[in-house]
Amino acid sequence: MAETIELRNVRAYGRHGADPGERERVQPLDVRLRLDVDVQRARHSDALTDTLNYAALHARVLEIVATHSYALLERLGEVLLSDVMRDQRVSAAEVTIAKPRRLGGATPAVTLRSKR
């Protein structure tokens, strides 16, 4: 049985964007992950090894956003999804990436999904 693990409000910093100058400076991105994960063993064992370690997941998101540079949020989202889907316990994943400082009065965001 798959349950949902979420990582919300991840403020990550990177150089991403299609417009001139966007990749010349670091800008904030807000990332949210929703992962369908089999946590049956963890529900009974109380062992971190039987579920996803969200601290490690958080660190990985920060690393990917900081060390890669893409024109499109769609590409960054695909890289993040591919990374989390490598864990065979994840049956489906959704990532939302927003640029909170890109437009005055609006926050553009992209949501992508992947499923086994």
Keywords:
alpha+beta, 4-stranded antiparallel β-sheet
Question: What's the number of structural domains?
Answer: 1
Percent helix range: 25-40%
> Reading side by side through the largest sheet, how are the strands ordered?
1-2-3-4
Amino- and carboxy-terminal Cα gap: 14 Å
The best one-word shape is: elongated
Q: With helices defined by DSSP (H or I, 4 residues minimum), what is the helix count? A: 3
DSSP strand (E) fraction?
35-45%
Number of strands: 4
Assigned CATH superfamily: GTP cyclohydrolase I, C-terminal domain/NADPH-dependent 7-cyano-7-deazaguanine reductase, N-terminal domain
How would you describe what is shown here?
The chain is an alpha+beta fold and 116 residues long. 28% of the residues lie in helices and 35% in strands. The protein has three helices and four strands, in the order E-E-H-H-H-E-E. It has a four-stranded antiparallel sheet with strand order 1-2-3-4, covered by helices on one side. The longest helix has 14 residues, at 54-67. The protein is elongated.
Describe this structure in a few short sentences:
The protein is of the alpha+beta class. It has helices at 40-45, 54-67, 73-85; strands spanning 2-14, 27-38, 90-98, 109-115. The chain has one domain (2-115): GTP Cyclohydrolase I, domain 2 (2-Layer Sandwich), CATH 3.30.1130.10.
